[in-house]
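ok so for the tutorial part 2 we go from a plain amino acid sequence to predicted structure tokens. step 1 is just haveing the sequence, like this:
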Amino acid sequence: MDRFPRSLEILRASLAQLTRPGREQLLDLVARSRVQPQDLEPWADYGHPSTDSYGRRLVCHSGHFELMVMTWLPGDVSAIHDHGGAEWGAVQCFGEALHDTFSLEGMRLIATGSRPYQPGDIQYVDSSLIHQMGNLDRPPFLSLHVYGCGQPRELITCQARLFDLDGGEIQYTNGGVFHALPEDCILRRRIGLHAAADLVARQRRLKADRLARMGWVAC
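step 2 — the prediction. this is what the tokens look like for a chain of 219 residues:
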């Protein structure tokens, strides 16, 4: 777009002055920008392919930070993931979203809690965050994602880890953290990922649902 909505222009200009904002500083900055759902509509992707677990569009990239808009249709759920090279960030969600967090101990993935979003909620993202976000059964909604790093980089969230419990592996990618990533989106793998049986079963169901939406039939 040649002209940004005022709220995003304020946010972009404010972020341009900072390279390592603190947690409260960043959350306050996003809140004071007063972004509204309609401001994100130019980047909405309600028709995203079924191969994509959610819509994902770049708003702007300014070297040490980027803004992205994600679109969540009913049934859209990300894979469990981190944010690669991103050192800090924030997500403002404009719907009632699933949001679960995890930790990795060796090659064992552990569920650590659930922090669901309510419309307008802003939550902080740091380099240690492993989470899963999605829309299980609500009307479509959008979310605004801010990711940053201290030094300018072409890809802020490069080498993001996707935790595929169904396949028992960690996959590295520079793109969307989607279930059933195609081979050409996987940079490398680490085999041996495991977790509690109930967590593995839940992730298998979510992955199977995405495959069903893609028209795949399990053997």
